[in-house]
Amino acid sequence: MRLQILGCCGGSTLGKHPTSFLVNDTVAVDAGAITAMLPPHAQEKVDHVVLSHAHLDHVANLPFLVDNRFARQTKPITIYGSKVTIDDLSDGMFNNRVWPDFTVLKNKKSISLTLRPVKAGEPFTIDGLRFTAYPMEHPVACFGFLIDDGTSSIFIAGDTGSTESVKKVVAGIDNLRAIIVEASWPSRMGDLAVATGHLTPRMIRDALPFHPEAKLLVTHVKPFFFHEVVGELMGFALPNTLILDDGMEFDF
Ligand SMILES: [Zn+2]
Ligand SMILES: [Zn+2]
Question: Distance, CA 185 to ligand 1 centroid (Å)?
Answer without folding.
Answer: 12
